[in-house]
Design brief:
The mean pLDDT is about 90. The protein has 5 helices and 4 strands; from the N terminus they run ααββαβαβα. The chain has helices at about 5-15, 15-20, 60-75, 95-110, 130-140, and strands at about 30-35, 45-50, 80-85, 120. The longest helix is centred in the middle third of the chain and has 17 residues, at about 60-75. The chain has a two-stranded antiparallel sheet with strand order 1-2. A two-stranded parallel sheet has the order 3-4. The chain has about 140 residues and is of the alpha+beta class. The protein is about 40% helix and about 15% strand. It has one domain (about 5-140): Leucine Aminopeptidase, subunit E, domain 1 (3-Layer(aba) Sandwich).
Length: about 140
Amino acid sequence: MGSGVAGALREAANGPINEAAMAQGPIPLGGVAVTGGFDLPARWVIHAAAMPHYGEGRATEHSIRQAVRNTLEKADQLGCRSLVMPPLGCGVAGFDLATGARLILEEIHGFEPRTLDDVRLIVYREADRPVVEEVARAVRGD
């Protein structure tokens, strides 16, 4: 788990979340690993590989879509009712936020869950909120 959102997650979990995730790796590009939430207000944390290992390239449209689909499917398999997801592949991974948010929101919009009924795309930096909100309106057709 690197910096940015992953680093903040690691810090807030206040436990060996990084070690628990790394013990399941390496996971393939687009794949997911599941750990407990430790001190986070979550039962599980689904770690998604939206970008190749550091130094081996950047996130792509395909890797982002696949990571989102696999995250949604895993959350549904676990019986989750809600899911909070950052803009996978954006930021440190180098993918454009507006384009990445569109890809993510399209995958969320097209997903047919069994148990999930509340999926949210959150941002790490408040300055990113207007971009994601504008993309969300466009995906919803508002």
